[in-house]
């Protein structure tokens, strides 16, 4: 479990407060996500390390006392591939001893990116308006 003496404000601080085995598991997950989504941007939200794709939340990762997890709505079609893990609508729990297979992480990331692109096309009026407000 994390040392809660200081509330983390970024991924580095979050990971530093975890036991070594959880740090290693989440760092590996982080690298897998970034490899599958090189255009994703890391950020820290809801008290967890997260990733955004096209300015929309892609997924988060975190740790609890007895597991680490990948958070975010799980795309349809992964039930059978995730049967060996504890899964809810928005969480996949795993342990450092039994990490999520790289192929599954990559497939989930790609499916989530496809959902974002479908729901919020990059050239849509809303996306263009959001960009002009930022400038």
Please give a structural write-up.
There is one protein chain. The chain has one domain (11-129): Aspartate Aminotransferase, domain 1 (Alpha-Beta Complex). A six-stranded antiparallel β-sheet has the order 1-2-3-4-6-5. It is built from four helices and six strands. By secondary structure, it is an alpha+beta fold. Strand 3 and strand 4 (68-71) form a beta hairpin. Helices cover 38% and strands 22% of the residues. 24% of the residues are buried. Helix 2 (20-36) packs across helix 3 (102-119). The model is unreliable at 131-135 (pLDDT under 50).
Q: What proportion of the residues is helical, as a percent range?
A: 25-40%
What is the strand tally? 6
Q: What is the CA-CA span between the terminal residues? A: 41 Å
- Principal-axes shape call: globular
- Would you state the CATH class? Alpha Beta
**Which ranges are low-confidence, i.e. pLDDT below 50, for 5 or more consecutive residues?**
131-135
* Estimated share of beta-strand residues: 15-25%
Kindly name the structural category: alpha+beta
Whole-number mean pLDDT = 89
Radius of gyration: 16 Å
Strand order of the largest sheet: 1-2-3-4-6-5
Largest beta sheet, briefly?
6 strands, antiparallel
According to CATH, what is the topology? Aspartate Aminotransferase, domain 1
Order of helices and strands: HHEEEEEEHH
State the domain count.
1
Task: State the CATH architecture.
Answer: Alpha-Beta Complex
The number of helical runs is: 4
């Amino acid at each position: 479990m994390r040392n809660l003496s200081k509330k983390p404000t970024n991924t580095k601080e979050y990971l530093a407060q975890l036991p070594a085995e959880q740090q290693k598991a989440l760092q590996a997950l982080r690298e897998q996500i970034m490899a599958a989504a090189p255009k994703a941007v890391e950020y820290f939200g809801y008290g967890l390390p997260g990733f955004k794709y096209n300015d929309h939340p892609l997924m988060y990762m975190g740790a609890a006392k007895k597991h680490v997890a990948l958070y975010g709505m799980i795309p349809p079609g992964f039930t059978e591939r995730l049967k060996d893990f504890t899964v809810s609508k928005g969480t996949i729990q795993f342990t450092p001893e039994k990490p999520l297979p790289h192929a599954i992480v990559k497939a989930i990331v790609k499916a989530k990116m496809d959902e974002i692109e479908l729901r919020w096309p990059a050239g849509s009026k809303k996306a263009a308006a959001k960009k002009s407000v930022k400038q």
